[in-house]
Amino acid sequence: MISSILKDDDYRVYPKRWIYLLAVSMINFSNGNTWITYAAITFYTNNYYSNNNAALFFNVIFMVLSIPVGFLACWWIDKFGLRSAYHIGTWANFIGNVIRLVASGSFIDPSIRFPIAITGQAVAAFAQPFVMFLPTKLAAYWFADNERAIANTLSSMSNPIGIAVMYSLAPVFVNNANPDNFFNMNIAVTSVALIPVILSVFINKSKPPTPATPSRDIDVQAPPFLKGVFMCFKSKTFIVLAVCLGGGVGLFNALYNNLQPALCVKGYNQTFNGGMGTLLIMSGLVGAAVSGIIVDKWGEFEKVMKIAFCIAGVAAASLSICINYENVEWWVVLSIFVFGAAGFSIYPIGLEMGVEATFPVAEATSTGLIIMIGQVQGVFYVIMTNLAVGKPDPHDMAIQTCVDQNDQIHTVLTWKVPFLIWLGCISALILIFAGCFWPKYKRRNYEQGKRWNDFEN
């Protein structure tokens, strides 16, 4: 009743917000495609680009560059707004894809394919912070308070959806029948990168003429960038959230990097392996949508995140066990589905919680810090798990589907210990989060108080 009385001309939303949501979602989708292009076809990638670690480098460069570029992106988005950040990210992503496309052509000497391709990957990696930090900014400025969580869910989950689609489609393009089909695959990825470039025509404002909510009123001034960073790190709630949610992002990156080689050494085929990557994300989309609706309706950030985190931990334990056995597709499918649905439901509402806990710090600052902390942890987890791999036994060597050439047989490894390390890290994060995360909803409390004051006056 009161909320309906308080909706007046001071705050309004515009239909154009849906175009902005589509554009931000598409660039995140495309950048996800670009990031994970080679993860599901590791052995073909290493062979085609004449580098035994090519697939690993293509993945890790995104995580490494996200740190220095991330600080620049945080400052830029807070200083100059959504519009310019979108254009920078969109064009860098597209140019990077064009360079990768050229590098994948058969007309390029094999000895220089990798240097050219990694250059293109680096340019696209430069775009990542500019596009991944946008969802909370978009939701805060353009959407009503009862739309923010679902808007943030749709735009932020577009990146992992892009990852899932690419993880599934890469083995369709590049496989035993077409081991060198990288050029056609990159044509498809570059074509998708062109879509947000076209949509950039409609992104001509950083914020609407009239604020959507009281927290975006002219009375609310975000602190300068460096002060905002210090304010974030003075908040115990934010530190716990950044370490645990960021750690979840990092562990997800490690899982995506390690899933395909871990499955193929147990005899699972390329189609199944790629499908598991897709299932991980698509189940996550369902979980994220449900959690977003719950949070928008009831605002139970903390309870939803803690329950989902614990369920994800159980699923991670199940996956760490079944990954060591062959012919248990049903167990792998069930573990990945539950882990994806529970684990990914945490991500978008966690980013919103970061904004809530640090208000009035600018949205890109809190979001960017969480994602950067996640990327730092991701680099650590990927390197640590790859150092813990072992030699497969004769039975695994007989059933493996990773390679079909004897000169590459040394690249086949076993992943029992890395997955136990991965599980241990998840368990530690769950214990920290469940015991130490007790947030205050600063933004929602401010908006509620502002509406009451306006109503009384």
TrEMBL record:
Instruction: Cite the InterPro entries for this sequence.
Output: FLVCR1-2_SLC49-like (IPR049680), MFS (IPR011701), MFS_trans_sf (IPR036259)
UniProt-annotated location(s): Membrane
Q: Name one Pfam family in it.
A: MFS_1
- Highest taxon of source: Eukaryota
One cellular component term from this protein's GO annotations in UniProt:
membrane
SUPFAM superfamilies referenced in this protein's UniProt entry, alphabetically? MFS general substrate transporter
Keyword list (alphabetical) reads: Membrane, Transmembrane, Transmembrane helix
Question: Does this UniProt record's set of keywords contain Membrane?
Answer: yes
**Bilayer topology term:** Multi-pass membrane protein
Q: What is this protein called?
A: MFS domain-containing protein
Task: Name the species this protein comes from.
Answer: Caenorhabditis tropicalis
